[in-house]
User: Fold this.
Amino acid sequence: MVNNTPMAASTYDIDLEQGSTYSTVFTYTDSNGAAVNLTGFTARMQVRAVYAASGPSISLTTSAGGGISLGGAAGTVTVTVPAATSANLVAKNYVYDLELVSAGGVVTKLIRGKMKVLPEVTR
Assistant:
C-alpha cells in the first residue's frame, strides 16, 4: 500500500525474472488508509539503466496495451511487464519510478526504487 502523504515517494524494490511476465498491484491510500479515487488519472512508469540514461529500458503507460491499469475508486494501480519485454533486458540492476497524473495535470510520484533483473536459465 502506498500512502498519500506530502513526502517523497515510497520506495519499493522489484525483482524481475528475465523472460517472465511480471505483474503487481499497488493500492494508493490516504493518511487514513482509505483508497484514493484514481478516476480521471493516468499513470506512467519508466525503467532506466541509470538515472541519467538518455532513454528508458522500459516505458509503461495507461494507454491501451501500455502495461498500467488504474482501478478508479478502488485506488489500485496494476503494473504488468510482458515476458517478451523482460526477455530483452540485460540481467543487472535498474532504477525506476511510477507517476500518477491527475486530470488537472498535477504529477505525483507514487513509488520509486530499484529493479533487479534476474537472469533467465530456461530459454
User: Anything to note?
Assistant: The first helix runs from residue 83 to 87. The longest strand covers residues 107-118.
